[in-house]
Amino acid sequence: MTLAPSKLDPKTAAFDETLPSGLGFTHVVKKGQVFRIVDLEGNQAVDTLFYNADDPTERYSAVDTIREQTNIYLTTGSRLLSTERRVLMTIVADTCGRHDTLGGACAAESNQVRYAIEKKYMHNCRDTFLLTLATRCATMGKRDLTANINFFMNVPVTPEGGLKFDDGVSGPGRYVEMRAEMDVRVLISNCPQLNNPCNAYNPTPIRLLVWNS
Ligand SMILES: [Zn+2]
Question: Cβ of 148: how many Cβ atoms within 10 Å?
Answer without folding.
Answer: 25
